[in-house]
Write a structure and sequence with these properties.
The complex is a heterodimer of chains A (213) and B (398). With 213 residues, chain A is α/β, with parallel strands linked by helices. Chain A has six helices and nine strands. In chain A, the strands form two sheets. A five-stranded parallel β-sheet of chain A has the order 6-7-8-3-9, with helices on both faces. In chain A, helix 5 packs parallel to helix 6. Chain B is built from twelve helices and twelve strands. Chain B has 398 residues and is α+β, with helices and mostly antiparallel strands. The longest helix of chain B has 54 residues. The chains are: A alpha/beta (213), B alpha+beta (398).
Chain lengths: 213, 398
């Protein structure tokens, strides 16, 4: 299965206003891309299109060989849960679930076997194995971010998406978070696309897509 | 991990709101369950006690009082009637069976009832110990009267005048000659003795001498329990008796139905109040789930992003309503049985008909089904909102 991303004439509109326009974009499997642009340029919209959370208003979009316009409903949800890992700026860990249960949630909702070894491995590779039974509120912001990344990668996605993962972090933490994402993507041979307006990350990514309003 | 554990987790995370919903539902279900359990047992007990008795004949007064005192031994008798009148009725061709009873005394709150052997046979009495009475001042104890008083065969006691515990004691002692097995009828709570004992105690006062009773002409009984010989008797006998001065005939079927209509109004009011509680519980479940949606919208959106279908989010919310309803219903049914048990203890102490906490009514299943339905219905609007979660917009806003 081709694991590249191909966008052609991609356009997203809300009502009459165009919020995203990508004339042509091709991402090879395993590449690490930074999507940059000012606020409102469509970075989040592009990431949501790649995850199948939105349907393009116009143009073609093929992600990991799947024409997302042809997928819908349960099929699209299942495709996303098994192929795409998502990390958001607001980490959105489920507050009453332990760290382990938060990661297990991704396995459960993807309909995959609940595999403690995979959970432990993901938590260990991100340095939070000893926090497995804690609640999110008992962790620091950095630790919560690692858990969110563990949840995104535990199902072994071919595509890892991160939306403003460093927005609220200091320099040192931002660089560390970016390195963690890159390292996890490399370890799992996943394609990484990070949407950000954070210039501190530019040097760590090999390719950049610039979006303009 | 599954939907049920996720639902339970969310409910545990909101203990106050969950406790409020559970408490309201449990209280509503508990009150209705208790009413079902208690009324069913009282109806069954009263039905058993009145089975085979078509008419109660006694002194003029309230017909309901006559029934309550003559059959159920619950109220004070309306007075006495001449034995001669009772015996004349007994010989009527319209009467298949007539059982005269003489009452007026008690022992430790248990009524002493003078009755012939046919009264014991009517309720299928069997001896657990000793023998049936044969002589005046011999007594046979009902199962509950024996167990609660601790009396044994051979025990002696003196009756007190009146039906309360404070009456003046007669000097003449009774001797317990037998103890009955439980009949699950009014007999269980009685001290039974030949009618002659009652006459003797009252005719000779404190100078009683067994076997020396007065003349038949002066003697009285308290009630006569009558079974008709034919359906025709129902149309003519009560009218004939009521026309006679000093006598009154009352139908147990009619008076019991009237009693339950009176009591039923109170029970219906209680049920209506309990239904309001259940409706409030439904509203509480709805508010709990709906208000939590705002703070859970990111959780629900991230679950969608992780692969949950809208249907699964819908099921999650409905399951939360169902779990709340199931827990509330279970607690309510338990509470209902505890209410009934507590009432039963009080009634037992007051020598009233028995009410058990271990009695189960088919109506409880309908009650449980109704309460579960309330939980599910209350969860549907928030579940529908969760179903329609706009994942992209919610995550973009977060």
């Amino acid at each position: 299965m081709p694991r590249e991303i191909i966008a052609a004439g991609l356009e997203q509109r809300y009502g009459s206003s165009v919020v995203l326009r990508v004339p042509e974009w091709r991402v090879a499997a395993g590449e690490r891309w930074l999507v940059v642009g000012s606020s409102g340029s469509g970075k989040t919209t592009l990431l949501h299109l790649l995850a199948g959370l939105l349907t393009p208003s116009a143009g073609a979009l093929s992600v990991l060989g799947a024409d997302l316009r042809s997928l819908a409903g349960r099929t699209l949800d299942r495709w996303r849960s098994r192929n795409v890992g998502i990390v958001l700026q607001a980490l959105h860990l489920v507050g009453h679930l332990s760290v382990r249960a938060n990661v297990r949630l991704a396995q459960y909702l993807a309909g995959l076997p609940q595999d403690d070894a995979a959970i432990d491995s993901a938590l260990a590779s991100l340095g939070v194995a000893d926090k497995a039974e804690r609640l999110p509120r008992e962790l620091s912001q950095g630790e919560q971010q690692r858990v969110a990344i563990a949840r995104a990668v535990v199902n072994g996605p071919a595509l890892l998406l991160a939306d403003e993962p460093t927005a609220s972090l200091d320099d040192e933490s931002a660089v560390r978070a970016a390195d963690l994402l890159i390292e996890e993507a490399r370890r799992r041979q996943a394609t990484l696309v990070v949407g950000t307006h954070d210039a501190r990350l530019k040097s760590r990514f090999e390719k950049t897509l610039v979006l303009r309003k | 991990m599954n939907l049920a554990t996720l639902s339970a987790g969310y409910l545990r995370a909101r203990p106050l709101q969950t406790a409020l919903s559970l408490g309201l539902l449990a209280l509503g279900v508990g009150v209705i369950a208790a009413a079902l359990i208690v009324v069913a047992q009282l109806e069954a007990t009263m039905g058993r006690d009145a089975r085979g008795i078509d008419l109660v004949v006694g002194a003029k007064g309230s017909p309901m009082q006559l029934i309550l005192s003559g059959i159920y031994q619950l109220d004070a008798p309306t007075g006495n009637i001449p034995l001669a009148d009772a015996m004349a009725l007994k010989k009527s061709p319209m009467v298949r069976k007539a059982m005269p009873l003489a009452m007026g005394d008690s022992w430790r709150g248990f009524r002493i009832v003078g009755a012939g052997r046919e009264y014991l046979d009517h309720y299928g009495a069997e001896l657990k110990a000793g023998k049936y009475y044969e002589q005046p001042m011999e007594a046979v104890l009902g199962a509950e009267a024996a167990s609660r008083s601790g009396a044994q065969v051979g025990s002696r006691f003196t009756g007190a005048h009146g039906l309360g515990a404070e009456g003046e004691e007669h000097a003449a002692p009774y001797t317990v000659v037998g103890i009955l097995s439980p009949t699950h009828s009014v007999l269980d709570r009685l001290v039974l003795t030949p009618i002659e004992s009652v006459w003797a105690v009252h005719e000779h006062g404190e100078k009683h001498e067994a076997g020396k009773a007065g003349a038949d002409d002066d003697r009285e009984v308290t009630v006569l329990l009558v079974q008709y010989a034919s359906p025709l008797a129902a149309a003519t006998l009560p009218r004939a008796i009521n026309a006679k001065s000093g006598l009154q005939a009352a139908s147990p079927a009619f008076e019991t139905a009237r009693l339950f209509r009176i009591v039923g109004a109170g029970i219906e009011a209680l049920r209506a109040f309990a239904l309001v509680l259940i409706a409030a519980a439904g509203a509480s479940v709805f508010i709990a789930l709906y208000s939590a949606l705002e703070e859970r919208r990111y959780d629900l959106a991230i679950m969608r992003a992780l692969g949950a279908t809208p249907g699964r989010l819908f099921a999650l919310l409905v399951l939360e309503g169902l779990v709340l309803a199931a827990l509330g219903t279970a607690a309510g049914l338990l509470l209902g049985h505890l209410f009934a048990g507590a009432l039963g203890l009080w009634m037992e102490a007051a020598q009233q008909p028995p009410v058990s906490a271990r009695h189960f009514e088919a109506g409880e299943l309908w009650l449980a089904a109704g309460a579960l339905l309330v939980g599910v219905l209350a969860a549907i609007p928030p579940a529908w909102r969760a179903y329609r979660t706009d994942v992209s917009r919610t995550l973009a806003a977060g």
